[in-house]
Amino acid sequence: MAVYTDVTEGELSAFLQNYPVGQLLSYKGIAEGTENSNFLLHTTAGSFILTLYEKRVEKADLPFFLGLMDHLAKKGISCPLPVHRHDGSMIGTLAGRPAVIITFLEGMWLRKPGVVHCREVGEALAAMHLAGADFTMHRANALAIDGWRKLWEASRARANEVEPGLAAEVDGDFADFERNWPCDLPTGIIHADLFPDNVFFLGEKLSGLIDFYFACDDFYAYDLATCLNAWCFEKDFSFNLTKGTALLAGYQSVRPLSEAEKQALPMLARGSALRFMLTRLYDWLTVPDGGLVMKRDPTEYIRRIRFHRAIGSASEYGLK
Amino acid sequence: MAVYTDVTEGELSAFLQNYPVGQLLSYKGIAEGTENSNFLLHTTAGSFILTLYEKRVEKADLPFFLGLMDHLAKKGISCPLPVHRHDGSMIGTLAGRPAVIITFLEGMWLRKPGVVHCREVGEALAAMHLAGADFTMHRANALAIDGWRKLWEASRARANEVEPGLAAEVDGDFADFERNWPCDLPTGIIHADLFPDNVFFLGEKLSGLIDFYFACDDFYAYDLATCLNAWCFEKDFSFNLTKGTALLAGYQSVRPLSEAEKQALPMLARGSALRFMLTRLYDWLTVPDGGLVMKRDPTEYIRRIRFHRAIGSASEYGLK
Asked: Which residues form the Aminoglycoside phosphotransferase domain (chains A, B) (predicted)?
């Protein structure tokens, strides 16, 4: 939770003259987003989000992320729409950083999502997969297996500080992935970070998806596996089968899974849990305490990896 | 800049049922306010600020602060209006903390205020002083001379770490205050913290005053002296006489200063600079690095104290 970069009223007003967003009435730094600085703007034309991209986001990737949001919004997915500048472009410069204006979505992200919300997320994820199928830009998943290996190489020597025996345990996972990671599943644009703080609801209805800054090309079922990890475990690390059933049913009501995807789901869920464990572990070991980046406990995902390792078939997640 | 306490959608919805504010559409933690947790709410009835009071604010003082905002708003001062609950009260409980809903004011606080803004602030400060004159509640200034002494006693032993010789220098200031601090100036409700981040503007026009959580009874001219410190010094610590002239003229256009107030102004400005130096110094020496409380450099106010010490008469601030 952070605003890394403040903006003066003069530079913001000058910046906004490039956009069809009316007159500025107020702007507040908001305590959301771990990678960028975000401001909520009120103007005579409504509410907008101003995002300044900090160094963790690769500038060369911005046309992909913004083009994707533009594409999805035009296909009827409720997600922020980048506001085009008078010259047609989407990316400007503010306070020395790449900066964009996107439309504001009403809705709350849920600190305590329930079963009904899991079904909604499954439906929305599948709809996003279908809507992205004809998006023409591509982006490799920087946090696929090769990326995990790099994170692991940087963390392995100190992994046992987090939990004794963790280094050998994760080495075993990597060995399994070498043998059993699927290689031929339906692939396309995935969100790759569809955690509860990136999904807005109004009551029980999903009102929007946000934060496409990990979106990339990868297996659709891997995205679904990430949602199983993000939405269906309770705070005590127990897996809520009712939520899993709802999430998977919601997904399949829009895009039915193939047999190969169903069979691969436990391995994908284990890989996804490893991916989030590794980024958390890396931050845990390398980011100084008290910095602006919030460090999250990697052990929450060690628990998930162990759960998935013991899964025999996707029906144990509630898959019908 | 911080949100110390997060709020779940369930407890927030339950809380809002006590207020005539319509249905919740979104809430975002905002990165403003150093003492409390603040959220910007959108509801079907408009925009509101939700404030959760953290431990730095004395709960017993809340009726004074909220009553004052209520009083001033009804007198035509543009400031947040506390929204009354259905039972008529203003203070609820949320996430275990005292919490209130106040109306949202459009406008920007200025990172780079100019001369025209200084005049506006002077006028608004005087208008606030007049409007508060018939407010019936009272609150002693916890950061008057006795409060300064306590801060100084807690910091003096390490003051020379900040700048060699500082301890003896400030001892000298206290000796002067014992002899020369005024005791019989016009007194009433003052804002006591009217820095640029507590004043909103739309273009060149002042649109509102916020953050009354230091308000108290003290000399009106002391409040004006605080504004001289907060608005009329440049980043290089030079005093901008044009801004000082504008601030003082704006104030006197609404509430002319008495001869005694004019004569006291250099001493009041020096005392006010000492007050902000001391709270900064105390935080500097006691708050751990990397905590949520932003530590501000006390030396900015040491420079101001020295400037005021050399002032012979208030005409040097631009007073006519």
From this structure: 27-257
